[in-house]
Design goal:
Bound molecules: alpha-D-galactopyranose
Structural class: alpha/beta
Shape: globular
Strand content: 15-25%
Radius of gyration: 26 Å
Number of strands: 26
Helix content: 25-40%
Distance between the termini: 43 Å
Number of helices: 21
Length: 701
């Protein structure tokens, strides 16, 4: 079974997308020299090379590509070889216009950009398979080859007739006969009953609101259709050399492709990560996607994950594209390693001089290697080399957050009670509290194995299967703790509302019965009283309970207004465990108190409970993750100013502690930047101290 180990070969991967076709050959020579200087050991090539590799249909030109691979290999640099299928050449769209995708209103997305292909087009598939075959035949045993990189950021959705036919086929597999489709889609509503399969079409542009299950099924189908394309190319390249791992790059919380399904088809997981340097919680946003990717890696065929893309500085596509201030690129690179990544790659090696992304930063900026960015690149490369001991280590988490693509798709369908209710926002609000408290967290499937976690959070699980509901019950019954957020348990996988009071299949587990959901406008602050957690304000959302049959303890209640006296937070004993229900959106600090208390009660501890003195003086130290390995115990800490509540500007100028790596009780020197000085402290003291507040401060715990 191919795995990430075959790619890493004892070193953390470092490098990035390399597009030599954009440069004269003289530059290639400089490229490899500078790659060596920077410790680059992996270059991703070919991602957008299709038009040059196959300048005319069926006519290939691999000469230049042979040279690129040879040059890299001669310089000791491995290759992630992409099937170049994300961007089809103009000849394809020009000669076969049906290979271009159509919008919901049948507008054609024409060529001149990228990702403009119809994923169900037989012509596109034929050419995509052919170029993949050519590449595999030629390079599957090339000594530089470390991994295959299939396509790029799969996500194109098309609504053309060919996709309509593929959709019908998908539906026939799912429902077998039309009666079952009619039943599942609820077509008695608004006279939508289908009499012939041919009548069934994608959820194209309509006069009013679309059938929700037609939309939902299309989203499921679109993900599956792209996955078919991934599989086709994967199987072609894998057949030529089964030793080489195959992967594609995920975009973190991307709704278009169900990452749980996809990752099972991959040899490991990877992430393209672009947090905004202007976001004071940029490190948290990055960690959020990284922890998801690490968790996805657990479900992949070979395990593990890498950061496939990040930027050294500004990106091309943001409204305001601020570069990363000195140290931030390094900090966020080390963050990925701290969260379990076995490689840190960037988009891209050399900033493009031309093309749509000419303003996107590179490892070599437009200014050239004599630049602060390249110097930081070299520094990061060196540092990664020195950290190869962490390779393959496992990050341990006692807490997991449930992420479910169907719940996500369904809760954001049309005609929900609150269009501001966004699935990923709900997850992020909970995640952020754990991050602030230094609690490492995984993500899990709703039907996945929860038994290894002490605490599971489901910040929202609006649509839920019966199997997932039972999974949660079994988990709590066995003595564990579950927290469920608002607007959960509402519908089944056919988006059928579960009747008899919300939250349908979770009523018994949570000991509650809700009659109505009660969103309200932004300007209304909900007052909530709680002797246990302190009074707080909540926003946007409340729920009307049937107070007679709700048996869970209301530990926080709404005060005033039409919902006066209704619960905001409830606790229910179920089997040997505890199930919490949070029926509103508490203000940040209150949610933090709540989750920290529940975590403590569940036996969950932060990675390092106590701040060393120096960190505290810096104003913001934080521990990220703890990895246990055959090499012993590692603890990684990063000084991210956001946790101290400082402003973005201040944060940017005082980026501090980089990575603290602790092996056993040894404590290598750690450098603080931004005027904080240099510490050579001993973490031994830290470990010896009993938990609880000390003179050195207690991490807001
Ligand atoms: C209109 C329509 C109804 C129903 C309601 C509620 O009044 O006539 O069929 O759709 O809106 O949305
Ligand atoms: C994505 C793509 C890259 C590049 C970067 C930067 O991650 O995969 O090709 O476009 O974004 O914008």
């Amino acid at each position: 079974m191919p795995s990430l180990h075959q790619a890493t070969r004892g070193r953390l991967l470092f490098g990035g997308d390399y597009n030599p076709e954009q440069w004269p050959r003289a530059v290639w020579t400089e490229d490899v020299r500078l790659m060596r200087e920077a410790g680059v050991n992996l270059a991703t090539v070919g991602v957008f090379s299709w038009a040059l590799l196959e300048p005319r249909p069926g006519e290939y030109d691999f000469g230049w590509f042979d040279d690129v691979l040879e040059l890299l290999h001669d310089n000791g640099i491995g290759v992630a070889l992409a099937t170049p299928t994300a961007s089809a050449p103009p000849w394809m769209h020009h000669r076969w216009p049906d290979t271009s995708p159509q919008d919901k209103d049948r507008t054609v997305r024409t060529y001149g950009s990228r990702n403009a292909y119809c994923p169900s087009s037989a012509v596109y598939r034929r050419f995509a398979d052919a170029i993949s075959t050519q590449l595999a035949d030629r390079y599957a045993h090339h000594p530089a080859l470390r991994m295959w990189h299939i396509g790029n950021e799969f996500g194109t959705v098309c609504y053309c007739d060919s996709c309509a036919a593929a959709f019908r086929q998908w539906l026939q597999t799912k429902y077998t006969d039309l009666d079952r489709l009619n039943e599942a889609w609820g077509t008695r509503f608004w006279s939508q009953h289908y009499g012939e399969w041919e009548e069934v079409i994608p959820p194209r542009k309509v006069q009013y609101v679309i059938n929700p299950v037609q939309e939902l099924d299309y989203q499921r189908f679109a993900s599956d259709l792209l996955l078919d394309g991934f599989r086709a190319e994967r199987d072609i390249v894998a057949a030529r050399n089964p030793e080489i791992p195959v992967v594609t790059n995920f975009m973190g919380f991307f709704k278009g492709t169900d990452a749980w399904q996809w990752v099972r088809e991959e040899d490991f997981a990877s992430l393209d990560s672009y947090p905004d340097p202007n976001d004071p919680f940029g490190a948290c946003a990055g960690a959020f996607a990284q922890d998801l990717t690490r968790s996805l890696g657990h479900e992949s065929r070979g395990g593990g994950w890498i950061m496939m893309e990040q930027s050294t500085g500004s990106v091309g596509w943001r409204r305001v594209s601020t570069p990363k201030p000195p140290g931030l690129y390094r900090l966020w690179s080390m963050q990925a390693v701290a969260r379990g990544a076995d490689g840190v790659l960037q988009f891209q090696w050399r900033a493009s001089q031309q093309g749509a992304e000419r303003t996107h930063s590179g490892m070599i900026p437009h200014a050239g290697p004599n630049s602060r960015v390249f110097r930081e690149v070299v520094e990061v490369g060196k540092e990664l080399e020195s950290l190869s001991d962490v390779l393959g280590t496992k990050v341990a988490a006692d807490v997991a957050i449930i992420v479910d693509w169907d719940a996500w798709r369904a809760v954001e369908l049309d005609h929900q009670p609150d269009e501001r209710f966004k699935y990923v926002d709900r997850l992020y609000e909970y995640y952020k509290q754990l991050w602030r408290a230094n609690i490492t967290c995984d993500f899990v499937r709703a039907e996945g194995d929860l038994s290894r976690y002490r605490l599971v959070l489901a910040p929202n699980i609006y649509q839920i299967t019966d199997a997932a509901s039972r999974n949660l019950e079994r988990y709590v019954e066995a003595g564990r703790t579950l927290v469920v957020g608002p607007f959960s348990g509402v519908t089944d996988p056919d988006e059928r509302v579960r009747l008899g009071g919300y939250p349908g299949s979770l009523r018994e587990l949570l000991g509650i019965r809700i009659e109505e959901y009660w969103p309200f406008e932004d300007h209304v602050d909900l007052r909530v009283s709680s002797p246990r957690f302190g009074d707080f304000t909540a926003h946007g959302w409340a729920e009307w309970f049937d107070l007679d049959t709700t048996s869970a303890d209301a530990v926080a209640k709404i005060e005033g207004g039409p919902l006066d006296g209704h619960p905001a937070v409830l606790r229910n004993s179920y089997g040997s465990g505890t199930a919490w229900y949070v029926a509103t959106l508490p203000e940040d600090a209150a949610l933090g108190r709540l989750l920290r208390t529940i975590a403590t009660d569940s036996g969950v501890a932060p990675v390092l409970p106590i701040f060393p003195k120096m960190w505290r003086r810096c104003g913001a130290a934080t521990v990220y993750s703890c990895s246990t390995t055959g090499h012993g115990k590692w603890r990684c800490a990063m000084n991210d100013q956001a946790r101290s509540g400082r402003t973005a500007r201040r944060s940017a100028s005082t980026i501090g502690l980089d990575i603290l790596h602790v092996r056993g009780l040894a404590f290598p020197c750690t450098t603080f930047r931004g005027g904080c000085g240099r510490v050579r402290d001993s973490v031994e003291a830290l470990h010896r101290q009993p938990p609880g507040p000390t003179r050195e401060g207690h991490c807001s715990w």
